[in-house]
Structure formats: structure tokens, C-alpha cells
Amino acid sequence: MTLHISLISLLVNDYDEAIDHYVRQLGFLLLEDTLLSSEKRWVVVAPASGAQTGLLLAKAVGESQTAAIGRQSGGRVFLFLETDDFYGKYNAMSEAGIVFLETPRHEAYGVVAVFEDKFGNRWDLIERAKPAGPVV
């Protein structure tokens, strides 16, 4: 038996605004947009076709959920977008209007920069360091 996390529910204030942001600015794919009722939709986006994990864009209902938009992790980095071309993706995202909260930095685990999505969620854009070759 295999298990994996398939979806992460992300609170947003508007479905169409969220779709526009994640698809147009971040380059995600819209995998599903199904009307469930007059007020509720099942909207799934993912960074790539075949990605094991997607985001379920959930429209906030009520004061408590609305207050949690962009604060689901208490102000910490919440999501991690991994790439194999950090500077290519960083430049494309910057040109699309994504605002990075810091300049790219090199860490032992790779190159990374924090950005905030339209709803206030903090993300790491990261390219993991390549493992060192065998010691001869």
C-alpha cells in the first residue's frame, strides 16, 4: 500500500481571483473546477502535470476562516515550491508580479527565496543542492 498527501486545503477569499493568481502568476495548472453548490466549488491547482500534491482552493466561509486567510501557518513559511531551475523560475515569477520578501540566498540545502502569494501565505522557492559526488 502506498500513501501520499494528495491535496492541501488553502483558504482564499475568491475562487476566480485565486485561480488567476496561481495559474497566471505562478504558472500552476488548473486541474479541476467543479461546481458543488451555488456557493461552493472544488478547485484544484498544481505546479505541474502529474504532481503528487495539489492545492485545494477553499473559499473561506465565516469570520474565523476569513481571518485565517494567509495565516494558516501563523506567519511562517507554509508551502515549498521546488524547482530544478531556481533563477529561471525566480525571474519568471518576478516578471509575473510575484514579490519576493528577500533576495535569493544560498544555504547548505540549496538556493532559496521567500515570497508571499496574493493571499499572504509565505512560500519558499527552492532548488535543492545537488549531492556531492563520491569521494575518491
Q: Classify the fold: give the CATH topology of the largest domain.
A: 2,3-Dihydroxybiphenyl 1,2-Dioxygenase, domain 1
- How many H/I helices? 3
Estimate nothing, just give the exact number of structural domains. 2
Quickly give the CATH architecture of the largest domain.
Answer: Roll
Beta-strand portion reads: 35-45%
Q: Residue ranges: pLDDT <50 for 5 or more in a row? A: none
> What share of residues is helical?
10-25%
* Rg computed from alpha carbons, rounded to a whole number of angstroms: 16 Å
Looking at the structure, what is the overall shape?
A: globular
* Total strands: 9
Instruction: Return the string of H and E elements.
Output: EHEEEHEHEEEE
- Name of the top-level CATH class of the largest domain: Alpha Beta
Biggest sheet details = 5 strands, mixed
Which class do the helix and strand fractions yield?
A: alpha+beta
Distance between the termini: 39 Å
What would the average pLDDT be, to the nearest integer? 94
CATH superfamily of the largest domain: 2,3-Dihydroxybiphenyl 1,2-Dioxygenase, domain 1
